[in-house]
Write a structure and sequence with these properties.
alpha/beta, Aspartate Aminotransferase, domain 2, binds 4'-deoxy-4'-aminopyridoxal-5'-phosphate, globular, four-stranded antiparallel β-sheet, 15 helices, 15 strands, Aspartate Aminotransferase, domain 1
Length: 402
Amino acid sequence: MNITQIRNDFPIFTHNPELIFLDNASTTQKPQAVIDTLREYYENYNSNIHRGIYRIAEEATAAYESTRNKTASFIHAEDSRSIVFTRGTTESINLVAYSWGGKNLKAGDEILITEMEHHSNIIPWQLLCERSGAALKYIPITKDGKLDLSEPDKYFTDKTKLVCVIHQSNVFGTVNPVEEIVRLAHNCDAKVLVDGAQIAPHHAVDVTRLDCDFFAFSGHKMLGPTGVGALYAKPELLEEMDPFLGGGEMIRTVSMESSTWNDIPWKFEAGTPNIAQVIGLGAAIDYLSELGMENVSAIEKELHDYARVKLAEISGLKIYGDREDKGAVISFNVGNVHSHDLAHILDTFGIAIRAGHHCAQPIMQKLGVPATNRASFYLYNTKEEIDRLTEGIMKAVEMFEG
Ligand code: PMP
């Protein structure tokens, strides 16, 4: 892969020649093809979808629906009706909590999640437990950033109705054994929701092989625009679920007394959707597919291997959940330097990393730290940038330790 050529596709690096962007787990930069797609929609065929009987409305509808097909292929869903467009992972998870959870959970039932979850895969379940009387259980994590699945019978029981698990951790980069979790869950007749926010941008996903019931992800973390993501759900589940938001487009008939619902997936897409963003997501999927997800993973693996070697040269630097075989996300602390101070100093060198709890406060509690630094890599990062990060951290430590 020619990284220089890839970088040239991202105008932000031309506009910010000093920028070293290592906060890709938070959001990613956009290739020109995605930016052009948004602009072309607004300039050439801006109109609402699914309702206009004129040329540009039909063009917009076709572009929007073609992204549904692309999204289904991208995650290997067999039926494009299983793809619901949402604002992102957070909304996808909330949709399941309201529409599936509201109908299927009651007092005495259990929702099983893990101590590794992002807040967006915790809070909707806490709220659902409050509404339904169900209880929330956690699969613990080990100090080295893995799920502790040594005693599955303790967690997967006949009370378990739903299991929600992060596929790749946004803090450690750990890739969880989702297939095993799906098998354990299905053995006790529970459904499984996979938080795919951090896996979909970086590795090939096959929801059919995983056999998960729900899979949520965000466009902005995989080169697409903000404001768009998707929920994959098995079509038979979508059929039986109640609507999430009510309004235009999600109905078939409306009378003053009652209404009936549109077919899936439109039953879950009330109102005017984020048309431009969905079409832009299609361009991001095209870009990634052209590169090949196996190549994207290979670029990241090389960067991750290199970063582990380089960061190990810094005395006093501790990586949380360090291991070779995981995603290209490195959480660390160094000496007594507070993560916010380090991130601030690195910013003065043009290096953007994340500092804080990464929306995963239970992990911080488990690690016994208030915060970590996090460097996360993507297909446009280079080894030179990792050298600059290493030098930057060394300089920051020097400044602190005098
Ligand atoms: N889950 C994980 C693992 C994430 O990393 C994120 C974003 N940081 C989310 C969920 C939420 O995604 P969004 O903000 O795009 O809804």
